[in-house]
Design brief:
Elements (H helix, E strand, L loop, with lengths): L8 E12 L2 E13 L3 E5 L6 H8 L8 E3 L2 E4 L2 E2 L5 H10 L1 E4 L3 H4 L6 H12 L4 H14 L5 H5 L8 H13 L5 E5 L7 H18 L2 E6 L2 H7 L2 E6 L2 E7 L9 H8 L18 H5 L8
Parallel strand pairs: 3-9, 3-10, 7-8, 8-9
Antiparallel strand pairs: 1-2, 1-4, 1-5, 5-6, 10-11
Helix pairs in contact: 4-5, 7-8
The structure holds adenosine-5'-triphosphate.
Length: 289
């Protein structure tokens, strides 16, 4: 049975800092959370520090950006002291990240089939022929119709939704325990969005993965995730169980909820989100479990 109570990840007092001409800018300002085998949503407006949080977990912040924390533990590994070599292994085997636009992540001069096959060969001791069969099975697993044909296509020949599913297939090759998805569906139209979400959902349920789902769309996240961190100005202002979002207390969360159109209870005008400078100064709410 999958152990659902052990934390896959513990992050305490994480900061991401960028030096600037005027001093420094803290994109993430001391946030704490843990991840179990669950769907954890991170929501907030543009610039609130969601992507930097996701990238910091895999130490993918580009220089001169700096990551500091009191603790960053992924299973048995202390991420704070892990070398770049160890981090590459972690990124390959334990945790993967799906970005918003797959076109930037796929190699433009290799066919889809070649990319998946090469990735499989790099991770497993199998023959090229078996790798090809597995690649077709993987495309099939992420609901790609006619996988044989898709194997021969190049990234520019596939649609956004298909590209995103191919990326998910690639990310699953090492069978990671943690998947970080940064706005994975925001470039897709609604029906394709749902297909990609279904695939991610199945992965958490069937493989017992922990998913960090980053989005600016509170509505989407509340339907899809188990627990939600609401970020504002680099801090976590509120933590909610998705099913209890209607009980959210923080005015920023309430504002995000009220600025979403509701088809069942339409309002003549949506609320404009008002901001209070005090929100940015309040201490970050802990989401450790
Ligand atoms: N290299 C950099 N130097 C200075 N500031 C940076 C740098 N990279 C990012 N930032 C700032 O860090 C803040 C957080 O960025 P981040 O990408 O995490 O936001 P986000 O919540 O994911 O927003 P979005 O939804 O737009 O992606 C932003 O204000 C951004 O301008």
């Amino acid at each position: 049975m999958t152990d659902t109570m052990t934390n896959l990840l513990d992050i305490e007092n994480l900061r991401v800092r960028f030096p600037t001409r005027q001093g420094h800018f803290d994109a993430v300002r001391g946030i704490s959370f843990s991840l179990r085998r669950e769907r954890l949503g991170i929501v907030g407006e543009s610039g609130s520090g969601k992507s930097m949080t996701g990238r910091a977990i895999l130490k993918l912040i580009r220089k001169p950006g700096q990551i500091t924390a009191d603790r960053m533990q992924m299973g048995g590994t202390n991420l704070l002291t892990a070398s770049e070599r160890q981090m590459r292994q972690i990124r390959g085997r334990h945790a993967s990240m799906i970005m918003q636009d797959p076109k930037f992540s796929l190699n433009p001069v290799m066919s889809v089939g070649q990319q998946i096959t090469e990735a499989l060969l790099a991770h497993e001791k199998i023959s090229r022929r078996d790798a090809k069969t597995r690649a077709i099975e993987m495309l099939d697993a992420v609901a790609i119709r006619g996988p044989d044909r898709v194997m021969d296509l190049y990234p520019h020949e596939v649609s956004g939704g298909m590209g995103q599913r191919i990326m998910i297939a690639m990310m699953l090759i090492p069978d990671p325990e943690i998947l970080i998805a940064d706005e994975p569906t925001s470039a897709l139209d609604v029906s394709v969005q749902l297909q990609v979400l279904e695939i991610l959902d199945k992965l958490v349920t069937d493989r017992g993965m922990g998913l960090i789902f980053i989005s600016h769309d509170l509505n989407l996240v509340s339907n899809f995730c188990d627990r939600i961190l609401i970020m504002y100005a680099g801090r976590v202002v509120e933590v909610c169980q998705a099913g209890r979002l209607h009980e959210a207390q923080h005015p920023y969360t309430r504002g995000l909820l009220n600025s979403v159109p509701d088809l069942e209870h339409p309002r003549p005008r949506l609320d404009v989100l008002k901001r209070d400078p005090a929100w940015a100064e309040a201490p970050s709410v802990s989401a450790l479990t």
